[in-house]
Amino acid sequence: MGEPILSVRDLETFFRPDEGIVRAVDGASFDLYPGRTLGIVGESGCGKSVTARSILRIVDHPGKVERGEALLRRGDGRIVDLVAIDAKSAEMRDIRGGEIGYVFQEPMSSLSSFHTIGNQVVEAIRLHRAVSAKEARDRAIELLQLVGIPRPEQRVDSYSFELSGGLRQRVMIALALAAEPRILIADEPTTALDVTTQAQILELIRKIQADRNLAVILITHDMGVIAEMADSVSVMYLGKVVESGPVDTIFHAPRHPYTQALLRSIPSVLAEPRSRLTTIAGSIPHPYARPPGCPFHPRCQNFMPGTCDRSAPPVTRLDPEHEVRCFLYEAPAEAVA
Amino acid sequence: MVTYILQRLGLALLTILAISVVSFVIIQLPPGDFVDTYITNLAASGSAVRAEEAAALRIQYGLDQPIWVQYWKWLSRVATGDFGMSMEWGRPVLEVIGDRLWLTIVISIAAILVTWGIALPIGIYSAVRQYSIPDYVFTLIGFVGLAVPNFLLALIIMYFGFKLFDLNIGGLFSAEYQLAPWSWGKIWDLTKHLPLPAVILALAGTAQLIRIMRANLLDELRRPYVTTARARGLPEWRVIMKYPVRAALNPFASTIGYLLPFVVSGSIVVSLVLSLPTVGPLLLRSLIAQDMFLAGTIVLLLGVLTVIGTFISDLILMWIDPRIRAGMHG
Ligand SMILES: Nc1ncnc2c1ncn2[C@@H]1O[C@H](COP(=O)(O)OP(=O)(O)O)[C@@H](O)[C@H]1O
Ligand code: SF4
Ligand SMILES: [Mg+2]
Questions:
Q1: Do A96 and B232 touch (CB under 8 A)?
Q2: Any chain A CB within 8 A of the CB of B227?
């Protein structure tokens, strides 16, 4: 696999509204490789989007990246820590869109209804490439063609509300790819779409990834999407990556009780690839009321009183690529970093 | 698109018709008819009117006919520009109103432009830097501005202008241009006199507009398209000015039409204090004097102007809002 293009370590992003503190991301670590897809999966509210936004440093107020690092290997070989550089700096803006493209969940509200889609795609191109308005427009039309929009010469002048949901999401992908980034973050790119369109969009992402050797972070709450798309998987629960490993390991030898519960909640991964996760016992705790110890313990079938509710379980490396955060697998003291 | 404009136009004509009915009712409001008032007025000045003469006048004005015939006759006269006589001034209504109508429009537009020029940038700043110290300061000044009546402000400014700079701030013209016919010199004189009353009138709406702009923009700043713009590497100020500010400004286009009557009615007292030659004080005076042709005409003209303003806002909204344009195709 070579060197990772993006390496996230112990990332912490907190929201500090007046009411308290929300540890939206509470120690997330993962690696991303060119040409591969990392799936980030977990129930709604577990911090997937905030993790992705932390990487681009576009977390909404009052959120703040507090700790950790996100090491990006730039096109020229330099390694920059996205957590350390100024979110307003020219370098960060250069990376946004230029190195990392972002596809959002809501294709309707993520596009301006006062500007044509061409206007927005051209803007994205010219922010990162010194091309004339005419060239940028031609490129925009090519991009719309590439993402499978029919009659792109005409669509380039339409508004987002004149397109169907599927076409809008294709525009979002074109927008994210406008400046030829090497990383694509797709945050629930198909959640708002019907099943047929979902499959088409996933296929499109896969095709573009193969053509451009893109590194993809695919965020979803849908294990079926993970099974179809991901090479490796990070399972998140309440801001923490609780288990990570190659997709086969996660599906066939899951270790964390939460991963197991996620998989059990799908009747059959192969028969119904896009089932939703709905049937894990209990509900996600309120963000202000994080359980002490292992945050999953109130819902865990393997809960060990006196251990799991006392302190947070450390990360255990089961094999070079498989890690789990659970007391059931706690390694001998000297192995824990 | 054409059907939309025709629709709007039809609606505008209907509204104007309704306004004409209201104006006619206003004219008919005082007890007795026009001739009674005429006779009373003449009697007050010592001359009597013979009964035949009164009857002739009634027939001339159609007062012996059913009310809707009277309305129709009145409307026909109005359509040809004959708005009747002002009782109090003894001159045709149009002559009494004179330049006041246009001056009212000029000063209202000036006041609206000043309001926007002050309120929109402050509203934008307050939203983008929500809860910053300047945001609190602007909010405070805004509320003080809301609480202080405008005429008081006008008086204070006049007082200090006179005291400190020996300025006589009242009116829209210098003495030598007051009655002069229109000329470049008079227009320049007006331009010089315009800013102060415009600012004083503008302050009324400013505080409120700051709040509206701030709230609109705060709403828009939370929307996903803002994050998307950021995520493609757009500098922050361009993100804000191009997308959420654009969206937050949109509703203002639709308010243009209503601003005129708002400014006119809100400005009556200030106009009195600053002795501005606008229609506001004239309307007030004509109502007190029961000078009904004058009052009815002013209401009619303001109403028609408002309808025209609303029609223009519709066109502007159509021009700037792609969603409305699209809605018209399909
Ligand atoms: N703007 C915000 N203000 C306060 N809390 C937020 C904000 N955005 C997200 N959060 C909190 O961060 C947590 C993670 O949210 P998110 O990353 O959007 O979840 P996911 O994408 O996994 O569904 C949630 O508990 C949410 O309440
Ligand atoms: S640490 Fe304890 S509560 Fe948490 S997942 Fe493991 S067994 Fe369950
Ligand atoms: Mg999300």
A1: yes
A2: yes
Looking from the CA of residue A60, the nearest atom of ligand 1 is 1
Q: Do residues B81 and B94 make contact, with C-beta atoms less than 8 angstroms apart?
A: yes
Ligand 1 atom nearest the C-alpha of A53 is 17
Chain B CB contacts of A120 below 8 Å: 229
Contact assignment for A114 to B231 by CB distance below 8 Å: no
For residue B161, the SS3 value is: helix
Give the distance (Å) from ligand 3 centre to CA of residue A249: 25
> Are A188 and A221 within 8 A, CB to CB?
yes
pLDDT at residue A270 is higher than 50? no
Among candidate residues A326, A323, A290, A320, the one with its CA nearest the CA of residue A307: A326
Instruction: Determine contact, residues B174/B127, Cβ cutoff 8 Å.
Output: no
> ∠ CA(A175), CA(A181), CA(A185), 5° rounding?
70
Cβ A112–B236 below 8 Å, yes or no? no
If DSSP codes are grouped into helix, strand and coil, which group holds residue A216?
strand
Nearest-Cα distance to chain A for B228, in Å, is 6
| Cα–Cα distance, A150 to A167 (Å, whole number) | 9
Going from the Cα of B54 to the center of ligand 1, the distance in angstroms, rounded, reads: 83
Give the predicted TM-score (pTM) of the model.
0.85
- The alpha carbon of B11 is separated from its chain's Cα centroid by a whole number of angstroms, namely 20
d(CA B267, CA B164): 26
Q: How many domains does chain A contain in total?
A: 1
**CATH code, B101-291+306-314:** 1.10.3720.10
CB contact under 8 A, A159 and B323: yes
pLDDT-based confidence at A74, cuts 50/70/90? very high
Per the structure, the complete domain to which residue A287 belongs is given by: 259-268+278-336
Instruction: Kindly report the nearest CA distance between residue B227 and chain A, in angstroms.
Output: 7
Per the domain annotation, does A291 fall within a domain?
Answer: yes
With a threshold of 0.95, tell me whether the complex ipTM lies above it.
no
pLDDT value of residue A331 = 66
Judge: B224–A112 Cβ closer than 8 Å, yes or no.
no
Q: Taking the mean position of all CA atoms in its chain, how far away is CA B38?
A: 31
Q: Which residues does residue A7 pair with via DSSP β-bridges, in sequence order?
A: A31, A71
Given a cut of 50, whether residue B47 has pLDDT beyond it is yes
C-alpha neighbours within 13 Å on the C-beta side of residue B260: 25
Instruction: Report the residue of chain B nearest A119, measured CA to CA.
Output: B242
Q: CA–CA separation, A69 vs B32, rounded Å? A: 88
Asked if the structure places residue A326 within a domain, the reply is yes
Mean pLDDT of chain B: 86
CB proximity under 8 Å: B 163-202 to A: none
- The residue among A326, A323, A330, A328 whose CA lies nearest residue A245 is A323
pLDDT value, residue A267: 59
> Does residue A292 sit within a domain?
yes
- Choosing from A12, A16, A22, A240 the residue with most ligand 1 atoms within 8 A of its CB, the one to mutate for a pocket test is A22
